[in-house]
Amino acid sequence: MAQAAIEEMRDENEEGRTAFGTVVAECAPVELLKSMVELDGEIMYVGHSGLQLAAMHRSDTAAIKLLARDDPGGLQDALEVAEVAAVVSLLRKCLASWERGEVGGLIELCGESEVLLGHKEFVEKYPVHHAAGWAGDVEVIKPVIKAHAAKLVAEDEDSDTPLDYAVALNVNQEVVAFMDEADCAFLNSDIFGLIRLCGKTPYEKEV
């Protein structure tokens, strides 16, 4: 029964919208959205982003909070299509916390979820990876590298470096170029290059 319900929610209509997407766009009660997400967490990413649809069509921040805590990586796309002032304000606050790696702040805004709790542990272990993948501005990354310079070329559990995250996940090419330059400076032991890029680092004392 549950599997049949999941398949029905994932089916797309002639407009390419899933049943879940229609429920989001037509401003169904938040309780219904929550039930659908709990039944099938992956449904948020089938067809159109649930968070993006909510930002486009809904004025209630409760729905935004529910969807954002399971899809923090989609905050920027949602903000770009949001028009209602309250929704725009919430998304900006959420995005600022997310880009800075302040997952605890995002939890305060939207509530706990397995996604956020898991990523909070990830940021604590790999702060530069997170910044490289999701920071929307170079200025957000600089203080992270200054504080965690030794992790600039560290590998995560999948052997990916912060530069790999930037290339794969970050749409801002200035950030990608910055990470490439910082990565090269570190690998070439160019301390002055890192200082030029980020300001003083823990390694400046060694110069």
Residue windows where pLDDT falls under 50 for at least 5 positions: 202-207
Mean pLDDT: 83
Q: In one word, what is the shape?
A: elongated
Proportion of β residues? under 5%
Number of domains: 2
Radius of gyration: 19 Å
Along the chain, the helix and strand elements come as: HHHHHHHHHHHHHH
Helical content class: 55-70%
Biggest beta sheet attributes: none
**Through-space gap between termini:** 66 Å
Overall number of strands: 0
SSE-based structural type = mainly alpha
- The number of helical runs is 14
What would you note in describing this structure?
33% of the residues are buried. Residues 202-207 have low confidence and may be disordered. The protein folds into two domains: 2-111, no CATH class; 126-206, Serine Threonine Protein Phosphatase 5, Tetratricopeptide repeat, CATH 1.25.40. It has 14 helices and no strands. With 207 residues, the chain is mainly α. It is elongated, with a radius of gyration of 19 Å. It is 64% helix and 0% strand. The protein has helices spanning 2-10, 19-25, 30-39, 50-57, 61-68, 75-81, 85-99, 103-110, 114-125, 127-134, 138-147, 162-169, 173-187, 191-198.
